[in-house]
Every structure is written in C-alpha cells, then in structure tokens.
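Notebook p. 47: complex prediction with zinc ion.
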Amino acid sequence: MPLKTCPVCGGAIVGRSDKVYCSDLCRHRTNNQAKASSGEHMSTVNAILKKNRSILKTLCPEGTAVVPRQVLTSMGYNVQYFTSIFVTQRKDVYYICYDYGFLPLIKDDVARALIVKPPRTMQFRDPWLYVKNKKG
Ligand SMILES: [Zn+2]
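Predicted complex, structure tokens below:
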C-alpha cells in the first residue's frame, strides 16, 4: 500500500484510509488559509470599487458628465466591478458604484460614459423582468 502524505506538512498519514491530513493541526491550517485568501480577495474587490468610485467622483463631482471611455480606462477604472446595476424602462443599463454610476454610450463611433450623481431615482427592478422564458 502506498504511503499517503499530508498535503500541508508532507508528513506521513497514519490511520484511517480516508484521512486527508496527518493531524487536526494541519486540517485547521488549511481551513484558515482558505479563509485568509477569501478575505484577501474581498479586500482587493473593495479596493477596486473604492478606486472606481473615486474616479467617477473626480470626473463628475455633481450632476452628470460625459467622458470618453478612454479617460476612464486611463485613470484605471475597472468596468468589471460595480455595486449594482440599474435597468431603465428603455433597457439602458447603468453600472452603479456606491452613490455614482455610469451609462455606457457610443456616440459618433466613440465609446463614452455618461456619469451620473445621484444615479437618478433608482427604483428596484426585478432582475428577471427582461429575461426570456426558456422552454424545456
Ligand atoms: Zn500534516
């Protein structure tokens, strides 16, 4: 029978064949590492969101502003992260970042962002409102 080794410390595993770690200590270490790395991920995302918000605030201290996408990008805006979305009746999608938001536009072949503060009167819209029914 091949000797199983512990994925944490590399030590031999003695005892039941379904044991994964050599000891409770190593099992707890793994759990703690998983917790630490998900905490790290959350603080990375939080930092991105804060940066996004501060970019929107800089470009649009109040009211509305239209800026080329290039400007957002060059300032380090990360469009993958937002705190919520807002879909208007016309199905325009605003990407909200705390108390700011933007609507992507393309005008005269140039990608732009309409930045808003406050992001209008945002009423909650059912996320399933515009979803097509799938059969089968
Ligand atoms: Zn171990």
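Notes: The chain has a mean pLDDT of 88. The pocket of zinc ion is lined by residues 6, 8-9, 11, 21-23, 26 (CB under 6 Å).
Next step: compare against the earlier run before touching the bench.
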